[in-house]
Amino acid sequence: MAGAERLAIVGGVRTPFQRAGTGFRRTSAVDLARSVMVEAIARCEVDPAQIDEVILGCAGQPFDAQNVARVAALRAGVPESVPATTVHRNCASGMEAITEALLRVRAGAGGLFLVGGVEAMSRFPLLFGEAATEWFTALSRAKGAVARLRTAARWRPRFLAPRVALLDGLRDPVSGMMMGETAELLAREFSIPRDEQDAFALESHRRAEWAQAERRFEVEIAPIVGLDGGTTSVESDNGPRPGLTREQLLKLKPYFDRRFGTVTVGNSCQLTDGAVALLVASEARAKELRLAPLGWLVEFAYAGLDPARMGLGPVHATARLLERAGRKLDDFPIVELNEAFAAQVLACAKAFESDDFARTKLGLERAMGRLDLQRVNVNGGAIALGHPIAATGARLVLTALHEIRRRRERRALATLCVGGGQGAALALEAA
Amino acid sequence: MSAFSLSEADGVLTLRFDLPGEKVNLLTLATMDEFELRLEEVARRRDAKALLIESGKPGSFIAGADLRAFAELADVAAAEAASRRGQSVFARLEALPMATVALIHGACVGGGLELALACRHRVASDDPATKLGLPEVQLGILPGFGGTQRLPAVVGLVASLPLLLTGRRLAARAARRIGLVDALAPPERLREAALAVVAAPPRRGPRSWSGRAVEAALRTLPPLRRLLFSKARRQVVARAGDVYPAPLRILDAVAASCDSRRETGFAVESRLLGELLTGPVSRNLVRLFLLAERAPGEKEATRTIERAFVAGAGQMGAAIASLFAGAGIGTRLHDAAPAALARGVGKARELLRKRFRDDDAAARAAIDRLDPSIGRHGLKACDVALEAIVEVADAKRRLLAELEANLPDHALLLTNTSSLDLDELGKGLARSDRLVGLHFFHPAETMRLVEVVRGRGTSEEAVALACSLARRLGKVPVVVANRPGFLVNRLLTPYLLEGERLVGEGAPIAALDRALRAAGMPMGPIELLDEVGLDVALHVGGVMGAAFPERFGEVGLVRQLVAEGALGRKSGRGFYLHRARRRPEPRFARPAAAAAAAGSGGPSASASSTELQWVERLLLPVVAEAWRCLDERVVAGEDELDLAMMLGAGFLVPHGGPTRFARGRGLAAIVAGLERLEARHGARFAVPDALRAAAR
């Protein structure tokens, strides 16, 4: 709704993003989150006691840190009196945290919020299967030596086979498809061949490499010093591969469909660890506290769609957003569209400019317009930088705002697809 | 007003100790009298099931005997009598017909623990505040109310010796492990735990069967006991020579406790307490304790300090940052070089883990309060900023100016400089009234002294706040003027330079260091140089030489070693070779001279006179320099000077520090000694006018 209250994005930071199993493989989600919270508070020069609530997105919360937002906030020195909540909208959890803050502002329930997202994908656990879990439970309940022995004798070697939570988490239970399989479906339906996907992936890496050389991320990244209580530091993203070639990408075999597939690990986003924290405020509070915002969240939209085709989420959500905000696709010179898979982004591009799609799927008279890939993910996207599930949404917002400021542009669109069949879209404006 | 109150419930008597007008319970002569009367009252109650003794002070049980009263005891007989009095009162406690239990929450040390030991049982709260110990050895005495007799009986010989000899305080869990307390419980449930222990008394002594076996063997085999004691004696002598008499007397008292006639053991304890308490070493240690207590600064005055910024993550910066974080202050540790910052924050975290090793949650909270910061963000929220970067004036000046530009108006600006002029560093600052030197000593986590340096423009408020901050960080502040070397480094200079000179003249370094340790120094000059770092010593020596060329001219050996890359312990080689066992570097060992000096078996007359000369040449110029410092008003007075030198350098602690040592010798004798040295060795031994005047 045009004219509705907007949210000041005061500022924020992110950790360097690290491929899962590398730099942050021993770092808990709590430690990642608290580092960026401390830094965000320091850089925005805010008194943590004035924060009304902490809202953090996290898709795979650590079992030993229930409500990771609360645990991280307390350890980051946010006073006990500040409540905290963890939110989950799969890949859009980082955006969910931000839009939740906006809703609270619009409801008059607070003026200053610490938001963001964190994902420690390296730390997703291995689980005992159901049969094994039942056996353990029975053993702990058995009373007396005889009963215990009898239960012990029921043990089977297959109990050792773990469930990999990460893999389970990346499969949509309703459609039964892995995320990559939904991308394969879109690649088939929208006729996106392998070499186009690889070309897109290569371009993502090239742009990220260039952005790193130009130190574009310096203003966003807060290096982690003294990792895991030791003396090493992590200062930059390690996802982008300098000097990556088409031939190297071509060598990779399709991962989700071995025989006829086109989606490989090279043209998919990388499993990654990272965290983002932002300070956001109502316009009035920002003025009161004399905080100069980096930019504004003006409007947002979430949309639901077929889980098997979740990759088209950005198209559905953007359609809703444009209607709500009274805008056209062309109004956004900068777009951050999360690169879950090259096939998925390219499918979205085709859907955006397809009148047929607009009419049949979106209930619109004609297509929203051409999505110029030149202005999409100009500093590289998740294929190169990685996709720590809940952190990504917040990173897209942060990076988009810095980019429009740099280019002296007015507006940016941040949008992503959400596993399970959703899309999220945020309309951002420069300060 | 009475300090004790007796109550009863369900046939169980409770005696509550709440000393009126004091924050903690102390055992004064008056309270001992009252306690005895109460015990007589309790003794008549044969029907009572048990007596529980608890404290009415929140967070503390009994903090020991009243030190001030004991410091005033005039002679050996009076001291011995005081000990016997305490022993007899606690003997009454021990002899009560019913079971007795001490309910311990908080500090239970010295006489307080002796009281608890006279009870049949002890229960303690499993709380970080609960600490049990017998720290009398740290004041040069021993526990004189039966502690040396009862502790070995309760926890066994093997566990009792380290506690008595080091005076360390145990946390509740550790106390339970050795059987010093019988059960742990939350503070609100101590009563229930006490009654449970009375109903089912646990076994005395070590909990492990091997521990019990050892104790049984020690009890029944006198030769084994003798072996234990002689080993302990050797260890004590190796560590501190015989400069401090208390540890050896403690061993004597404990040995007497193994004598089957109990009375002899207690009598020995009293006699030895009398000797020690009135002896010069204990008097000096007590004086040191009281001087440190009376130092300026109030912890409570730092309530407004919530966040700090420490710039410079080297050894000092890291340790200082850990002190801030450990004191509950949110701290940002900054360094321009990420690798140095990572090392520094790692070191700071390690220090915090060590400090809070008994309390995981506190360790985690302290580490969370410490954040590494590559940028200079967060200054606006800081109440204090401290720089601990390299000793280069330009760099420090620039950094201080940058810090000041971003700090809020009320913030304190501190520098850890050890050798630079505070006023020079403050040039160009808009608010030099809030610039104060806060000079820590290495290693900052353990050395208790902080020199609070007052610059020309520094306000009194800033000095007072800096002193209070030092207190909050667990340190003892001494205010000094902004003169070269401030106080401690300046007074150590003649000690170190003369040591270097003696080595140049051929003195073997091991013998030299040994002689100075025997004279009451914690380290001889050469091992101190190696410890400090020869590069550091060269730098400080250079600064002092430039400021006072007539006295502190360079000797040259240290420079030579530094040029060879031998920097002391940190580089594995200095004057000594620092390997598995420290050995003098062959050049400085002079075995032939050492053999001649040692003679065969015992020191010859010429050897000990050589050593005496060494001691004279090293200590007298320090005394002279001390009087110059007093005259220049570098420090407020002799007490403050002694306090600083003892805490900052361990200087002649058994003798009470430089000025007390000098007055003990007699200032006239000191002057005469200096004149002799001046005649033989030159103007650097000149007698300052202030000293000559004081000697008259």
Q: What brief labels describe this structure?
A:
heterodimer; A: 431 residues; alpha+beta; 10-stranded mixed sheet; two-stranded antiparallel ribbon; 15 helices; globular; B: 696 residues; alpha/beta; 30 helices; 52% helix; 13% strand
What does this molecule look like?
The complex is a heterodimer of chains A (431) and B (696). Chain A has 431 residues and is an alpha+beta fold. Helix content of chain A is 37%, strand content 18%. In chain A, strands 1, 2, 3, 4, 5, 10, 11, 12, 13 and 14 form a 10-stranded mixed beta sheet that branches. In chain A, strands 6-7 form a two-stranded antiparallel ribbon. In chain A, helix 3 (93-106) packs across helix 15 (389-407) and helix 4 packs antiparallel against helix 5 (145-152). Chain A is globular and about 75 Å long. Chain B contains 30 helices and 20 strands. In chain B, the strands form 4 sheets. An 8-stranded mixed beta sheet of chain B has the order 13-12-11-14-15-16-17-18, with helices on both faces. In chain B, strands 1-2-3-5-7-10 form a 6-stranded mixed beta sheet, sandwiched between helices. The interface between A and B is medium-sized, with 22 and 23 residues.
Short description:
The complex is a heterodimer of chains A (431) and B (696). With 431 residues, chain A is an alpha+beta fold.
| Beta strands of chain A, count | 14
The backbone outline of chain B, from C-alpha atoms, is globular
Main sheet makeup of chain B: 8 strands, mixed
Mean pLDDT of chain B: 92
- What is the tally of beta strands of chain B? 20
Largest interface: A-B, 22 and 23 residues
Class computed from helices, strands and strand pairing of chain B: alpha/beta
What value does the Rg of chain A take, in angstroms? 22 Å
**Rg estimate of chain B, integer Å:** 27 Å
